[in-house]
Design brief:
Length: about 70
C-alpha cells in the first residue's frame, strides 16, 4: 500500500475534490479508511481551497495554434 510505504519515510501529496470528512464513506471499509486517515493526517499540512473554479472564468474556449 502506497500510504503505508511512505509513512514516516517521505512526502506524500494527495489531492481530492472529496472533503476529508467524507473519505470514510468513499473508501467504504471502516478499518481501512481509519488506517489510511491515521497515516495521512499524522504530521499533515492540509490546504483547503475555496472559491470559483478557474475553468469557469474563461468565457470563450481556448484556441490551440499549430506551429
Amino acid at each position: 500500500m502506497i500510504v503505508e510505504d511512505r509513512y514516516d519515510v517521505g512526502s506524500l501529496v494527495i489531492a481530492s475534490q472529496v472533503p476529508v470528512g467524507h473519505w470514510h464513506e468513499m473508501i467504504g471499509i471502516p478499518t481501512i479508511a481509519g488506517a489510511i486517515l491515521n497515516r495521512v493526517i499524522h504530521n499533515a499540512y492540509r490546504l483547503e481551497l475555496s472559491g470559483d473554479s478557474l475553468r469557469e472564468r474563461s468565457s470563450a474556449p481556448a484556441k490551440l495554434e499549430r506551429a
